Amino acid sequence: MTAAAPTPATPTPLFGIDVWTDVVCPWCYVGEARLLEAIEAEGLTGRVTLRAHSFELDPTAPTGSTEDNVTGLARRKGIPVEKVREMEAQIGDLSREVGREYVSPRPMGNTRGVHRVLQAVQEARGAEVATEFFLELQRGHFTDTVNPFDEEVVVTRAIAAGLAEADARAAWAGTTHDDAVEEDVREAVSMGARGVPFFLFDDRYTAPGALPTETFRQALRQIAAEAEERASTEA
């Protein structure tokens, strides 16, 4: 009998990247794509962990109702609809530069329920599963293939991520995990965040905004070198 080949060991992550984000934030969508592009370009795929944290762009948005993003932004900011469409077109161009579809208009509404479910998934299944659950909702929102304001859609995806249905519905309804959302927001604000995306690299360096891919690459290169040096010193 031939012995099975040993399974290659999974490399130990060098460092973590925490990102505060909202499911309806277009710059978060672009920023995440640029970050992943930079991670791959620097040969760090599988060597860093990405953790999503809650942050609401518009906590005052009405719960239980939606309007399209163009109309809603024009109303809230007091700017012409055509101006919003121009802004959307510009972000769409940036999205396509990193190989991502960008659909406009899209539904918009209060995102608190999504954030509570994110926190519930994280508690039950861990940060990695919760992050993927959240980012899939975000990607689906911007390609208009997922409605993150539909309770059944979010609960179904939370169940697929391993969360019990009762726990998902309780979080969506606000019975649980509201404090966890607030804690995430307070942590970001305490580090100087005024909006999202907001990044924390290796628990040491913060960076606001959807940075250019090359800027992400330079930061990752420096932080990875520091992490490797630290690991060799501690070995």
TrEMBL record:
Residues 17-220 form the DSBA-like thioredoxin domain. It comes from the Bacteria. InterPro entries: DSBA-like_thioredoxin_dom, Thioredoxin-like_sf. Coiled coil: none annotated. PANTHER family: GLUTATHIONE S-TRANSFERASE KAPPA, THIOREDOXIN SUPERFAMILY PROTEIN. This is DsbA family oxidoreductase.
